[in-house]
Write a structure and sequence with these properties.
- By secondary structure, the protein is α+β, with helices and mostly antiparallel strands.
- It has a single domain, classed as Sandwich (Jelly Rolls), CATH 2.60.120.
- It is 19% helix and 26% strand.
- Strands 1-12-9-14-4-3-2 form a 7-stranded antiparallel sheet. A 4-stranded antiparallel sheet has the order 5-13-10-11, with no helix packed on it.
- The longest helix has 12 residues.
- The chain is globular and about 45 Å long.
C-alpha cells in the first residue's frame, strides 16, 4: 500500500478522499459472487427497479467479510483511522443501469443501534425494516469514517457522489442553507476496485444514471467510540 499521508490530510481537511487500486478484478469477482448467491428474501434486502440494497450487509452475507477485509484493507483502516476502529454499519448498494434514483444533498446523521429508548442528546429516531436508527451527538458523528468500496467504474454519468468540500467542518449543515456563492462541489470519480473515504457530515448527493452502466458500492462505517451503556451498535464487528 502506498504512503497515504496525503489521503489522511485530504480526509481531515475536505471530508473525503479517493484511493485507487485497493482491490483486484479477481477479488471483486469473488465479492460479487458471494452477493449473488445470497438469500434476497429477508427484510434487510430492498429491491426495486431503481435500487437493490442490503442493510446489515456483513451480517446478512457473511461470506463477503474475509473477501472485503483483506490484509490491504485492514492495513489501510489502521493507517487512516487508528488501531481501535471497528465496523458500526454496512450496506450494499446496487444502482441498476437504467436507474432514475436521485439523492439530493444531505449529511449522514444517524447511526444504527439495537433498540429505541429515551436517552439525552439522542434523537430523533427512525425505524426502517425493523432496524433502529437515531441521530447521536455531533461529536460522535465527527468520529465516524465511511469507506465506500467501488465494484464498478463510477463517474458523473452513473451516480458518482457529488460532495461539498469542507462542509463536514460546519457541524449540522442543512441542505436548504447551502450558499452556492461560497461553496463548490466536487464529483468523486472512482475506478473499479478503488475506495472513497468520507466523513458522514460531508454534504453529498447522487445523480441519476445516464450512461446505462451499473454502480455497485459497499458502504462501511467505522468508529472507535462506545455508546452509553443502555445502547449498543446494531452491527458492531471488531477487526482484531
Amino acid at each position: 500500500m502506498k504512503d497515504i499521508t496525503i489521503n489522511k490530510q485530504e480526509l481531515s481537511d475536505n471530508g473525503f478522499t479517493v484511493i485507487e487500486n485497493v482491490y483486484s478484478a479477481r477479488e471483486l469477482q469473488d465479492i460479487l459472487a458471494a452477493v449473488n448467491s445470497a438469500d434476497t428474501s429477508k427484510e434487510t434486502f430492498r429491491k426495486t427497479t431503481d435500487l437493490f440494497a442490503i442493510r446489515q450487509f456483513l451480517k446478512e452475507v457473511p461470506a463477503v467479510f474475509d473477501l472485503i477485509f483483506t490484509d490491504g484493507l485492514r492495513k489501510l483502516v489502521k493507517e487512516m483511522m487508528g488501531e481501535r476502529f471497528f465496523v458500526v454499519k454496512s450496506i450494499y448498494f446496487d444502482k441498476p443501469e437504467a436507474s432514475n434514483w436521485y439523492v439530493p444533498y444531505h449529511q449522514d446523521l444517524t447511526i444504527s443501534v439495537d433498540r429505541k429508548l429515551q436517552l439525552e442528546n439522542f434523537g430523533p429516531w427512525t425505524t426502517k425494516q425493523n432496524q433502529f436508527a437515531v441521530q447521536p451527538p455531533t461529536s460522535l458523528l465527527e468520529n465516524i469514517t465511511t469507506i465506500r468500496i467501488h465494484l464498478d467504474d463510477t463517474n458523473e454519468n452513473n451516480g458518482a457522489l457529488r460532495v461539498i468540500p469542507r462542509s463536514h467542518l460546519k457541524k449540522i449543515y442543512r441542505p436548504e442553507n447551502i450558499n452556492w456563492e461560497t461553496e463548490t462541489k466536487t464529483i468523486c470519480r472512482v475506478q473499479q476496485g478503488g475506495i472513497m473515504l468520507m466523513k458522514p457530515l460531508t454534504l453529498h448527493s447522487s445523480s441519476r444514471t445516464t450512461n446505462n452502466k451499473k454502480r455497485r458500492v459497499i458502504h462501511i462505517e467505522f468508529s472507535d467510540r462506545e455508546l452509553p451503556s443502555e445502547l449498543q451498535w446494531a452491527e458492531r464487528i471488531n477487526l482484531n
